[in-house]
């Protein structure tokens, strides 16, 4: 799976609709301190299902919505859409025939958050399930931040196991077992 495009609006410092295309090869995002580079990674994490405001570098979820600046008023909604290119058959049904998939998440100050897969409203759990075992989930290894290599090396074996299990593709089964045990 390859991330092709990120579209954001009202998300943190990205108040105006912004589209970032990631072509084949390496894309680097550069800019001065505070220009919003890490905010893009926060957007990615959030759409993939991060539900801890702290992990998104905020105090509460509303901190994800543009809160105004000297020249602009705050907005009420933030909206992020990710487009992935997928190899046919890489995802489970009903998405196995697709070559592209879009995941969108929207948050309003009063209304909470909604998630969409290819424009259809879904539960956030459906998004998380879709990415299980692809390595792309929010706590997996697709996002390598400052300090995370050191954290991996010094992690307790049971913490490190999560990373191996994701890579080995057994997370899906573990998650289904947990769900079955809860019933
Ligand atoms: P560095 O190079 O220091 O890592 P960066 O490019 O990663 O910087 P970010 O941390 O992505 O910068 O962006 C921080 C900026 O985003 C700050 O100026 C902050 O005020 C702004 N910001 C964060 N949340 C919001 C929000 N909800 N509304 C408006 N601006 C926000
Ligand atoms: Mg940064």
Automatic annotation (TrEMBL):
ATP binds at residues 32-39. It is found in: Cytoplasm. Belongs to the SMC family. Contains large globular domains required for ATP hydrolysis at each terminus and a third globular domain forming a flexible hinge near the middle of the molecule. These domains are separated by coiled-coil structures. Homodimer. Required for chromosome condensation and partitioning. This is Chromosome partition protein Smc. The gene is smc. The chain holds residues 1 to 183 of 1157 of the full protein.
């Amino acid at each position: 799976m390859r991330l092709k495009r990120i579209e954001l609006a009202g998300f943190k410092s990205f108040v105006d609709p912004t589209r970032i295309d990631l072509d084949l090869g390496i894309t680097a995002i550069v800019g001065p301190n505070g220009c919003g580079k890490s905010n893009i990674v926060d957007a990615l994490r959030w759409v993939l299902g991060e539900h801890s405001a702290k992990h998104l570098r905020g105090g509460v979820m509303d901190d994800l919505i543009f809160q105004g600046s000297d020249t602009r008023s705050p907005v009420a909604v933030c909206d992020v859409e990710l487009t992935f290119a997928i190899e046919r058959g890489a995802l489970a049904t009903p998405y196995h025939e697709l070559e592209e998939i879009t995941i969108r998440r929207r948050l309003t100050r009063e209304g909470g958050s909604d998630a969409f897969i290819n424009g259809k409203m879904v539960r956030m759990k459906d998004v998380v399930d879709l990415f299980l075992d692809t390595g792309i989930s929010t706590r997996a290894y697709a996002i390598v931040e400052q300090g995370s290599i050191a954290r991996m090396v010094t992690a307790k074996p049971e913490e490190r196991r999560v990373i191996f299990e994701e890579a080995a593709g057994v997370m899906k089964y573990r998650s289904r077992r947990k769900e079955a045990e809860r019933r």
